[in-house]
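tmp note - Amidophosphoribosyltransferase
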Amino acid sequence: MIPNHSVSLDDHAEIETRADKPEEACGVFGIYAPGEDVAKLTYFGLYALQHRGQESAGIATFAGEQVHLHKDMGLVSHVFNESTLSKLPGNLAVGHTRYSTTGSSRKVNAQPAVVDTRLGSIALAHNGNLVNTGHLREELLKSKCNLVTTTDSEMIAFAIAEEINAGADWLEGCIRAFNRCQGAFSLVIGTPTGVMGVRDPNGIRPLVIGTLGENPVRYVLASETCGLDIIGADYLRDVEPGELVWITEDGLASFPWSQQPQKKLCIFEMIYFARPDSMMNDETLYSYRLRLGRRLAEESAVEADIVFGVPDSGVPAAIGFSQASGIPYAEGLIKNRYVGRTFIQPTQMMRESGIKMKLNPLKDVLYGKRVVIVDDSIVRGTTSRKLVKTLRDAGVVEVHMRISSPPVTHPCFYGIDTDTQDQLIAATKSVEEIAKQLEVDSLAYLSWKGMLEATREDTNSFCSACFTGDYPTSIPEALKGSKLILEKAAV
Ligand code: SF4
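out:
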């Protein structure tokens, strides 16, 4: 019989799916389009990139030398309205949506970061994290830079200003500054004369170029292709690792600035962060995630009645798992799509009656079934455990959990918030121990090889350091010590 009581969770009535996931750093957007409403186009670009950061949003426009800036805490749709956008005139714009990975979540840390130089202002929007901020900060403070925020993004802007004020032109000054930076940086930089798009020598965070219209061609930069689609721009190509593109009234010019560029795109962008409708390597990420699920089914088959994904990010892999295994796909959990972050605690009565704020099980679908539940990753494991209990309370008889990525054993230093190493469940526990802790009947992760081979790209062209500890840049000892807790303890 299907239980007719509401399923109660332990202490907390809600299932916080995102809180137990790596958090994305930022989304960036830039446009050079004289004669168009660049602020409004940037607003929609950021709206499409909202999944990359929900804490603050900002847009800077340039009308000649004059820079106009509006930024605040909150979602893109809360920060801007017709009135604020109408006060942002100009020919070009840069925009940013932020999740704080360095610097606390405060308005002053919202981007774009605007800094004055000898040649005029720059407005800089950054996705990624630098790993040499300690050193860079010391250098900048020595030369009496007036750092007002706590972000590495502002340090990049000040390093550019410092080079320009020492006599360099825009290009030379920027390239000199980028050579002082180590780590992950995909940047969009507005100046009075044009917009720049830049990627670090490893191209860890994505950045794409699009075109808008034909005569004349307008150029757009965005973290993902979904930021182009929303304004009707066509994808042209990626900004390459170690490349600077400079978009002015003369069109788009390319300047490779790094001596040793290599492609090391964050594999987690492919598995989970980027929107499934964004294109990478000539296909949607939905298609890649389907293949992850198929490979997962081949590697860790199991007998079950239905398979479903943890909404939304686990769904494509679950469909792939179903296709390869022949186990019927079904919806097992429904996500409340209108729930944002809430700071209001549920009432005691809500807790007791078990109202789910984010995910609700479909009890009649689940009752009496052996289920395969597919998720894209496990970080701390707290959410997965609650989820398993919810399924059992709904009458599921066997829970087989399948994860479409390998165990996360190392922290990220490149702009993804994955906690310190000791917080990562797979850093301290075996797969068997994790299965026991989550109270599942079986647990299997996708192999590292399987994850990379499913890209159908050169398997060396990705960063997968959070699964291996093999970071594509050197990590300064002081920074390592702050996150690689277990390695430190082992020394
Ligand atoms: S360490 Fe992991 S999350 Fe960070 S950039 Fe590399 S693959 Fe991405």
